[in-house]
């Protein structure tokens, strides 16, 4: 079988610009979505979620903080344009501190994947079960200084 994917690429040269890229990416995140958010520490993954959450009317950028210790942050928002808005739940996870599939099981990620949910998982690539579930990924690459290359890949 051939697997095709849709790829969208963006450039950013500041945190503010990454938030705007988050607005662009949010347009492609019609639920259900379950995506890995991949990139080095400080690449700007959480910053991108600030933009996605803002675009979905789920939270202001200041209200989106790193789930490094809290593990899962949940926001309620809407997706779609004026005449056709649907409620969505945005889940932002950070699995950096999770060690092994057994500890991951205690989080109950399976329950998050609902028809109205958008799940974004930082450090999800550490876990085969998360990779298997994912419908694609957003990759953030440092390109020197504050420059970032951001790629959204959605599997068909
Ligand atoms: P991560 O979640 O990938 O560890 P964060 O979003 O928490 O990264 O932090 C990124 C840091 O880098 C922030 O302090 C942010 O201000 C800074 N930064 C500098 N340039 C950018 C950029 N182009 N995009 C995103 N963040 C940037
Ligand atoms: Mg982060």
Describe, in plain words, how this protein is organized in 3D.
It is built from five helices and seven strands. The protein is α/β, with parallel strands linked by helices. The protein has a single domain (5-155), classed as Rossmann fold (3-Layer(aba) Sandwich), CATH 3.40.50. A seven-stranded mixed sheet has the order 1-7-6-2-5-4-3. The model has no long low-confidence stretch (mean pLDDT 96). Adenosine-5'-diphosphate binds next to helix 1 and helix 2.
Jot down its keywords.
Rossmann fold, binds magnesium ion, alpha/beta, globular, binds adenosine-5'-diphosphate, 5 helices, 156 residues, single chain, 7-stranded mixed beta sheet
What's the SSE blueprint?
Layout: E1 5-12, H1 15-26, E2 33-38, H2 45-55, E3 72-79, E4 86-94, H3 100-105, H4 109-112, E5 117-122, H5 128-133, E6 136-142, E7 148-155
Parallel strand pairs: 2-5, 2-6, 4-5
Antiparallel strand pairs: 1-7, 3-4, 6-7
The site of magnesium ion has 5 residues, from helix 2.
């Amino acid at each position: 079988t051939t697997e095709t994917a849709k790829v969208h690429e963006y450039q950013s040269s500041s945190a503010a610009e990454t938030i705007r890229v988050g607005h662009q990416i949010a347009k492609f995140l019609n639920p259900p979505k379950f995506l890995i958010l991949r990139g080095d520490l400080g690449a700007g993954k959480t910053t991108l979620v600030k933009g996605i959450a803002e675009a979905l009317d789920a939270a202001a950028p200041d209200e989106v903080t790193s789930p490094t210790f809290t593990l899962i942050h949940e926001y309620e928002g809407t997706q779609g344009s004026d005449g056709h808005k649907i409620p969505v739940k945005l889940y932002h996870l950070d699995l950096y501190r999770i060690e092994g599939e057994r500890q991951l099981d205690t989080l109950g990620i399976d329950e998050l994947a609902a028809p109205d949910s958008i799940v974004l998982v930082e450090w999800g690539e550490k876990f085969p079960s998360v990779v298997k579930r994912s419908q694609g990924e957003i990759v953030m690459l440092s390109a020197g200084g504050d420059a970032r290359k951001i790629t959204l890949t959605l599997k068909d």
